[in-house]
Specification:
Structural class: alpha+beta
Number of helices: 11
Number of strands: 6
Order of helices and strands: HHHHHHHHHHEEHEEEE
Distance between the termini: 26 Å
Strand order of the largest sheet: 2-1-6-5-4-3
Helix content: 40-55%
Strand content: 15-25%
Radius of gyration: 20 Å
Largest sheet: 6 strands, mixed
Low-confidence stretches: 1-8, 103-108
Number of domains: 2
Shape: globular
């Protein structure tokens, strides 16, 4: 968790002290870096305006700022949902790729949820998602969340129960260790781009699903999710047959996952994340993001 700075100092100091916490809260609610940055700008303007008005100091700046951020994110969610209605192909969360220098901000943002979990959260209502993120990820109590979202504690508990039940039905309680996920990611990337069919089949679970987000702008492996080991392997065999020379593979972390980055020169072409079965023995899902608008922050 982001450490708590003293609740003193200038408005700017206080806001910057909690900015990474606010970023993580909003990003986990929206799954979009650009929209998260826009929300944080609105939060800053509201915070600065309150300080400039000369009203009494806020007793708990952390809770106050999170409240503004959560409500701004809920308002932004409607516009984001509208954009998705005309989006070409599957929509995946924008990858929050760790910087090579592993800065403090990167470490704090790594608290963000895994790609697979963010995909599951897309199926929740905006309020269910807000309550789940605030309670399950950041540890706010239900009465605190009720005050933040202007709902009754009973309503928040009901939202939390529905969200938790929904998530548990779609995500295993236990996930594979990060080191194992990183190893499988590298083996998968080598097999997929190298055209090694048997190695690929050995890695994929029978019911694996491939999701590709090109947004109509990047190369899309498929405009629909591809299901089944043989079908997913066939897609990557066709990719391997047309891979241009000079591609560069790099391995980083994207939020809570290991990931493979595909570069052409200095330009990122794709972020690939694999989600493992609960026992870590095979790949349950592959997420490939090639929409250039979602790769602008990667270097």
């Amino acid at each position: 968790m982001t450490s708590m700075p003293p609740d003193s100092g200038t408005a700017t100091d206080q806001f910057l002290g909690y900015r990474e916490l606010l970023f993580s809260v909003v990003y986990n609610m929206l799954g979009s870096v650009a929209d998260t940055e826009d929300v944080l700008q609105e939060v800053w303007l509201a915070w600065a305006s309150r300080h400039a008005s000369g009203t009494e100091p806020v007793d708990n700046p952390r809770a106050y700022l999170v409240r503004i951020a959560a409500n701004q994110a809920l308002a932004r969610r409607a516009a984001l949902s509208k954009r998705k209605e005309t989006y070409v192909g599957p929509w995946l969360p924008e990858p929050l790729v760790a910087a090579a220098d592993d800065s403090a901000a990167t470490v704090e943002r790594a608290e963000s949820l895994s790609m697979a979990m963010l995909v599951v959260l897309e199926t929740l209502s905006p309020l269910e998602r807000a309550v789940f993120v605030l309670h399950e990820v950041f540890g706010f109590a239900h009465p605190e969340i009720a005050e933040m979202l202007d709902r009754s504690p009973a309503a928040v508990r009901q939202l939390a129960t529905r969200a938790r039940r929904h998530v548990q039905a779609r995500r295993p309680r236990h996930s594979a260790p990060p080191k194992l996920q990183a190893e499988v990611t590298e083996r998968f990337a080598a097999a997929a781009l190298g055209g090694d069919l048997q190695a690929l089949l050995d890695l994929l679970a029978p019911e694996v699903t491939l999701w590709t987000d090109g947004g109509g702008k990047g190369p899309a492996l498929s405009l629909r999710p591809v299901h089944g080991r043989e079908n997913v392997a066939a897609v990557f065999m066709s990719v391997a047959a047309t891979v241009p020379a000079g591609l560069d593979l790099r391995y980083r972390r994207v939020a809570g996952d290991a990931c493979a980055l595909v570069f052409s020169g200095n330009s990122p072409l794709a972020v690939v994340v694999v989600d493992l079965t609960p026992d870590g023995g095979s790949i349950a899902a592959v997420y490939s993001i090639t929409n250039p608008d979602k790769l602008t922050s990667i270097s």
